[in-house]
Structure formats: C-alpha cells, structure tokens
Amino acid sequence: MARIGYARDSNSDQNLQTQIDKLKAEGCEVVRSEKVSGASRDGRNELATIIEFLRSGDELVVTRLDRLGRNTRDVLNIVHEVEQKRAFLTILDPLVSTRGEMGHPVLTVLDMVAQMERRFIKERQRDGIEKAKAEGVYKGGKRRLDHAKVKAMHSEGHGPAAIAKALGCSRMQVCRVLQA
C-alpha cells in the first residue's frame, strides 16, 4: 500500500515546490506533478498515470481539492476511478478522505464550492475587463507571438512549420497570424 502524491498548478508562474514538500512530509513515497489547467482532465497525463497504476489499498493524496480539479463532474469521476481500483483519495486541506463514511458527501460539497469559486473568479475578471474597456484603459492581453516577425519570415520564404519551430510556437498559431 503506497501513498502517492499529486501536485498541479495551472501555469508556469506558479511554484509546485510547496505542494511537493507538503506531500512528501505527509509520507508520499511517490509525488507526480504537472503544470496544466484543472478546468478539465485534458492534458493531465501525470494524473492519468497515477490512476492507471493505483493498486488496491493505495492512497492518492492532494494538498487541496482544487489541485485535483475545478470541475465537479471531473472530480467525482476521479474519485470513482480511484475507488474502482479499491484505492483511497485524501485531501490535506481541509483533511478529508474517502476512507470514512462521510468522505463522499464532504468531497462533493467541497468540490461544488470550488467550482462556484472558479465561476466567481471568471465573473470578477470579466467585470474588471469591461470596466477597464469602458474607461479606455484595457489594451487586451499581451501578445505571445511577434506577428511582424512571423510575417517577415513568411515573406522570406519560410513555411509555417519552419517559422513555428524557429519561434517556439505551434504551426497553427503561425497559420492564424498569416490568415489575419
């Protein structure tokens, strides 16, 4: 029976080390981590690997419920998959585990609250953007790709794949810039 930790952050600006340290301090022999959104299970390869290799009696440990996911249906599906393996899920803050009888109802309520919080954050962000636009302050998001550089490279005869490789982006991003 193993305690397996899972740490997740949404973007590269966040630091996983605090989560990893807490999981190791809780006795997790293995800690898998990834930087990917928790809004869905898409691209969450480390989590999929953990679930695939869980054995009967193992325990999946996360520091907070929102590290497991931000969508109630996804979290409930993860809990179900863990249980299908006859394993357990433990959240450290607040301390909740599927080992006890009250684990499921508490997890469900906590996850619903986390999903509502995500919606509220998005609404406040949208409201802030609308206010900034009305005041003429909003300039939009920061461009991640130099459009002029893409067009210049294309006019020099480079194809979308070569431009993407040179600039460290996807070919689709290059194609969108060229079509605009």
UniProtKB/TrEMBL annotation:
Keywords: DNA integration, DNA recombination, DNA-binding. GO terms for molecular function: DNA binding; DNA strand exchange activity. SMART domains: Resolvase. InterPro entries: Recombinase_CS, Resolv_N, Resolvase-like_N_sf, Resolvase_HTH_dom, SSR_resolvase. It comes from the Bacteria. Residues 2-136 form the Resolvase/invertase-type recombinase catalytic domain. Transmembrane segments: none annotated. GO terms for biological process: DNA integration. The active site is at residue 10. Pfam families: HTH_7, Resolvase. Belongs to the site-specific recombinase resolvase family. This is Site-specific DNA recombinase. It comes from Microvirga guangxiensis.
